[in-house]
Amino acid sequence: MGPRATVTLLVTLLVTLSPAAAAGRSSRTQQAYASLLREIPHWGEDHWGVNLTTPELIEAMGYPVEIHHVTTEDGYILELHRIPYGAEDQPSEGRPVAYLEHCLLCSSSDYIMNDPDKALAYILADSGYDVWLSNMRGNTYSRNHIELLPEDLAFWQFSWDEMGYYDVPASIDYVLGQTGAQDLYYIGWSMGTTVFWAMMSERPEYNQKVRAMAAMAPVAYTDQAQGPLIELAPYSGDLDTVFSLLGVGELLPGSDLMDYIAENFCDMEANTAEICYNFLFLICGPDSDEIPEEYLPLILSHMPAGTSVHTVNHYAQLILAGVFQKYDYGPINNLIHYGQETPPLYDLSHVSAPVGLFWGNTDWLADPTDVARLAAELPNLALNFQVNKTEFNHLDFGWGIDADKYVYQYILDFFSQY
Questions:
Q1: Torsion angle, CA of 87/90/92/98, rounded to 10 degrees?
Q2: Is residue 285 part of a domain?
Q3: Banded model confidence at residue 229, pLDDT cuts 50, 70, 90
Q4: Residue 402 is assigned to a structural domain of this protein
Q5: Is residue 280 part of a domain?
Q6: Residue 278 pLDDT level (bands cut at 50, 70, 90)
């Protein structure tokens, strides 16, 4: 984050610390905001400081935090962020492990973009869990490889196929090794669910390492998806080819441009803030009252967090194909990769771990009809939970003001049964 975004963050925090805003917040939350203000370096100097990372934000909110790194079988170096216990707890052994996997173009930051009593990562830590936040290859925190550089086109030759086959298993093994736990609770949001289905289809032995899985806004089938992204799907393959020919493999990394947009147009005091909201609704579905205004600039300074062009194209392929399949390289290259002209289908019957599906009525990217199709193919569906709110879209699962009331408490209840 550049100097303008830092100023915007400070303004946002000052607004939330005003008497009117503070009246509705806990004293611990107010102290956390004050701490966050103090943590921003070089305030008042010519150099305004740098963007607060996920670990810095967690620490500023009064929670313990650790940074870990794990290397996948194919050489990508992933960064994990850990909250080992709650803000008011003491270190202890044997806490159940909660592993959180992020959505498309997201990162570990997306589970902490709210007050401590509202954000999922903090709620889990305060509820007795040892919380691990993942960062899959190519995002802000996982841009390293044992041989390749992000400037190399070869670095970006992956889709969520590789995330499911390499990243998630490597991260789970590392977490279990560090904690000594035999298994863990898995929470996925959007792409975080897609990679789970892919992993279990290809590496079903990992079912034994997951005590229960909560799938928020679950995505496997996308036949009924809506919005402008669907209109772009027929052109996605051509765009992928053009990008490759130009030597471009990365899509929408975190950038100064997004910081500039967030700080100048999306601050809750800006006249154009409504445009930012409407843009999010246009992509993910209507819900006018769930995105926290005071956190919007901070959210948009962390998201999009970047991924490969292939990853986004893979979702477009699902829309066009109407099936849940591996990446389509075209008939000739499919023969090289798979030994057949068409991509193999993922087998959801291999997902034997207990699964809870959590879905919203107005989610354009995880449409209720598509979720129902997924539910029918899962052999151990333990819970099929429709959010009890007329409008609840794709983004509300991570950032919603009332997601704790509508979703998270039910995830805690679900996990308590296993």
A1: 0
A2: no
A3: confident
A4: yes
A5: no
A6: low
Whole-angstrom distance, CA of residue 359 vs CA of residue 37: 36
Distances in Å between the Cα of 15 and the Cα atoms of 34, 37, 98, 156, 232 are 12, 12, 33, 40, 39
First-last CA distance in the chain: 41
Catalytic residue among 108, 142, 159, 190: 190
Pairing of strands 97-101, 130-133: parallel
Q: Three-state DSSP class for 130?
A: strand
| Least confident span in 139-153, 200-214, 256-270, 342-356 | 256-270
Question: Of all residues in the chain, what percent carry a pLDDT higher than 90?
Answer: 66
Highest mean pLDDT among 44-48, 128-132, 246-250, 293-297: 128-132
Question: What residue spans of 40-138 are helical by DSSP H?
Answer: 54-60, 120-126
Q: What is the mean pLDDT of residues 319-330?
A: 96
Q: What is the CATH number of the domain that holds 153?
A: 3.40.50.1820
**Catalytic site residue from 142, 394, 396, 404:** 394
Active-site annotation holds for 46: no
Q: Is 299 inside any structural domain?
A: no
Under 8 Å CB-to-CB from 18, ≥6 apart: which residues?
Answer: none
- Token representation of residue 182: 């035999």
Is the distance from CB of 78 to CB of 72 less than 8 angstroms?
yes
What is the average per-residue pLDDT within 43-64? 69
Q: Among all chains, which residue has been given the structure tokens 């509705």?
A: 24
The position carrying tokens 């393959």 is 237
Q: Which one is predicted more confidently, 144 or 257?
A: 144
CB 307 within 8 A of CB 252: yes
* Mean pLDDT calculated for residue range 14-34: 37
Helix (H, G, I), strand (E, B) or coil at 312: helix
Annotation says 363 is catalytic: yes
Q: Of 363, 367, 370, 396, which one is the catalytic site residue?
A: 363
Please tell me whether the peptide bond between 304 and the residue prior to it is cis, using omega within 30 degrees of 0: yes
Residue-range definition of the domain harbouring residue 326: 54-254+304-415
Task: Please say whether the beta carbons of 104 and 190 come within 8 A.
Answer: yes
Cα–Cα distance between 409 and 276 in angstroms, integer? 29
Mean pLDDT check: name the lowest of 31-35, 159-163, 379-383: 31-35
Report which secondary-structure segment, H or E, holds 211. strand 210-216
Q: Three-state SS for 229?
A: helix
Of 148, 175, 68, the closest CA to residue 308 belongs to 148
**Domain count for the chain:** 1
Structural Rg of the chain based on CA atoms = 21
